[in-house]
Task: inverse folding
């Protein structure tokens, strides 16, 4: 298979890092497969990229929004035409099976269409004035250079959630993709450039957080930073951004609960839990990591989940029959295995899985068995901390009240779900779950780009990328008052009796 050296994209040119250093990315399913060589960038590279983005900004913000949108719409077509190739690249770089990689590309296509057509809307509000012969309206304006730090788990989709709304608003971009999955960002930007994006409007700097991410967050010419990743790193990004009063949009960890009431359709639950706990090898911020199940149906359901988990075909995502791929790297493998030890040490019952998969091709990658713990109590670490792997913690409860209390009793609040046929229970959950996303009779994953995506508590800081709110992250409101009375009219004074 092809191996390419990827250079940074700065001002429309592919350039080597000024550090002279590169790093390799190997397929996490097969370490013999070298996916690409990337620039191990430093502060100077980031500064050059920000300078290029700053230089491109005045012209790009003057391009009419519908025209900016057209470029995105054209990019959507190119992504569609290259879906198969880009899916393979994505599977090779981060491990998810091909059918899931296709979903990652489709999400970017959807976002390109959605953000592209926003170029013809981007509504402001006009309101009546309190005073006669006065007109007032509001409009969105771009902010400048947006710095983006994206994760490896949805390397095409999440880059698109950030980049495409930022572009349609008229900003320019410097992106540092996750070092484990940079190829997909190059693929996305390749389509944008071919669709007509001018040089310097998007710049890519590859590398690691401390050496390439931090200088981007700290750069005084980057007024907006959009970050998706761990809560630990997000907190640092927030602190650094705060010092310069930057707008920082954070999308961080989750410990997503899936509640099963005793009246639920268990066949439906089974499919949903297996998909949301073990899909993407549990490496979604929205993955189901806690199954909060009514005692009356717990043992029947768990038995069926265990049977399915044990039957999942784990392997190289490039094989068409693979259902679950590897973990993204050796560090994640160690982390997941150590959480499994924590669970055992805390007294939870390991019902299935729990081990690294070895032997044959498994020895070349980072494979772990789908794992289910029962007898988990809400205070255990495996019930509270984000594991980011295929580990499901089953907590039994006796009522809806208890289920909601347990669901909410964690630091995070991204996604959540309830399976029930009781409409009252469903509406209570919809209102009472402390989460940015609630699913009814569907699992915790599968958000669509037309609705706001994000979470509460330690998951986020109030911003919502995707959905109509996506423009708020990347634009500034301006209110405009036009007084055509020809005289001074003092608001709140001249019009008050
Ligand atoms: C993530 O969980 O990291 O909602 C992103 C989903 C996908 C995006 C997930 N559309 O499952």
Result:
């Amino acid at each position: 298979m092809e191996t390419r050296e990827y250079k940074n994209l700065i001002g429309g040119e592919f350039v080597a890092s000024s550090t002279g250093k590169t790093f390799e990315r190997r397929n996490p399913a097969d370490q013999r497969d070298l996916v690409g060589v990337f620039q191990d960038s430093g502060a100077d590279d980031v500064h050059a990229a920000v300078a290029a983005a700053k230089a491109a900004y005045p012209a790009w913000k003057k391009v009419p929004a519908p025209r900016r949108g057209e470029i995105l719409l054209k990019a959507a077509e190119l992504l569609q035409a290259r879906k198969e190739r880009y899916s393979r690249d994505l599977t090779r770089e981060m491990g998810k099976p091909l059918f899931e990689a296709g979903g990652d590309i489709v999400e970017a296509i959807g976002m390109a269409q959605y953000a592209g057509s926003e170029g013809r809307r981007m509504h402001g509000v006009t309101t009546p004035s309190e005073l006669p012969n006065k007109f007032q309206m509001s409009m969105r304006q771009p902010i400048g250079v947006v710095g983006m730090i994206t994760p490896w788990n949805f390397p095409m989709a999440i880059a698109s959630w950030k980049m495409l709304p930022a572009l349609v608003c008229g900003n320019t971009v410097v992106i540092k993709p996750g070092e484990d999955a940079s190829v997909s960002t190059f693929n996305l930007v390749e389509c944008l450039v071919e669709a007509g994006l001018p040089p310097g409007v998007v710049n890519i700097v590859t590398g690691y957080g401390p050496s390439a991410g931090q200088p981007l967050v700290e750069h005084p010419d980057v007024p907006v930073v959009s970050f998706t990743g761990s809560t630990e790193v997000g907190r640092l990004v927030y602190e650094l951004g705060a010092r310069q009063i930057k707008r920082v949009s954070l999308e961080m960890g989750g410990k997503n609960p899936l509640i099963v009431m005793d009246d639920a359709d268990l066949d439906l639950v089974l499919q949903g839990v297996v998909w949301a706990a073990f899909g993407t090898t549990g490496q979604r911020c929205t993955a189901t990591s806690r199954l909060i199940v009514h005692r009356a149906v717990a043992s029947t359901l768990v038995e069926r989940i265990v049977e399915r988990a044990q039957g999942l075909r784990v392997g190289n995502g490039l094989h068409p029959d693979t259902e679950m791929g590897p973990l993204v790297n050796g560090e994640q493998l160690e982390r997941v295995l150590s959480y499994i030890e924590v669970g055992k040490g805390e007294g939870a019952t390991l019902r299935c899985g729990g081990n690294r998969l070895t032997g044959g091709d498994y020895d070349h990658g980072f494979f772990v068995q789908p794992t289910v713990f029962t007898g988990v109590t809400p205070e255990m670490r495996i019930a509270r901390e984000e594991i980011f792997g295929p580990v499901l913690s089953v907590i039994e409860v006796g009522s809806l009240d208890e289920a909601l209390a347990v669901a909410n009793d964690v630091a995070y609040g991204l996604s959540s779900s309830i399976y029930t046929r009781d409409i009252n229970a469903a509406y209570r959950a919809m209102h009472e779950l402390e989460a940015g996303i609630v699913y009814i009779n569907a699992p915790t994953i599968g958000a669509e780009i037309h609705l706001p995506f994000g979470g509460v508590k330690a998951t986020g800081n109030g911003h919502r990328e995707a959905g109509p709110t996506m423009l708020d992250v990347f634009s500034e409101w301006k209110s405009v008052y036009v007084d055509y009375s020809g005289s001074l009219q003092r608001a709140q004074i001249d019009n008050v009796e």
Remarks:
- Residues 9 and 204 are 5 Å apart (CA to CA).
